[in-house]
Design a protein that fits this description.
With 158 residues, this protein is an alpha/beta fold. The chain is built from 5 helices and 4 strands, in the order E-H-E-H-E-H-E-H-H. The chain has a 4-stranded parallel sheet. Helix 1 links the parallel strand 1 and strand 2.
Length: 158
């Protein structure tokens, strides 16, 4: 199952969710992340948190969602937005017919500097919990309607 995680800057939330999906979903899901207006680098707080929790950071980068909209791009099964801006943008056409869902979380990189470590920890916990809820289910064999309902329940929109 291929999952694309979107955010505007692709530097923190989407990177965290990509890494968590690949870590916990090994052999079941492959995740990538991208941004509509990528900042070009991964936030150091995101990298540090992943390393501290034993989650691989190899290959993580801030990149444009255009990379995933061409004919050579992998077909996506699910596209998850994690920021309200990306959820409201007009997205490219993704190969395949992916389910689209919004799992909005606050941007930890936008928190005041003294609150940033707590903000990153909080967002990481929310996203890790959502990934575990998703992967407790037989997502690979679910029909689109059931999978969509599950994704919306997990994200708090259904």
């Amino acid at each position: 199952m291929n999952i694309l995680v979107l955010c505007t800057g692709n530097s923190a939330r989407s990177i965290l969710l990509e890494a968590l999906l690949n870590h916990y979903g090994t052999g079941r899901v492959t995740a990538w992340s991208a941004g509509s207006h990528p900042v070009g680098s991964v936030h150091p707080g995101a990298f540090a948190l992943l390393v501290r929790n034993g989650i691989a950071t190899t290959g993580l980068s801030s990149k444009s969602w255009d990379r995933f909209s061409g004919s050579n791009a992998p077909a996506m099964d699910i596209v998850i937005t994690v920021c309200d801006n990306a959820a409201g943008e007009i997205c490219p056409v993704w190969p395949g017919t992916p389910l689209r869902v919004h799992w909005g979380v606050d941007d930890p990189a936008a928190a005041p500097e003294e609150e940033r470590p707590h903000a990153f920890h909080s967002v990481y916990g929310i996203l890790a919990s959502r990934v575990r809820m998703l992967l407790r289910e037989p997502v690979e064999s679910m029909d689109q309607r059931s999978l969509g309902a599950l994704l919306n329940r997990i994200g708090g929109t259904g």
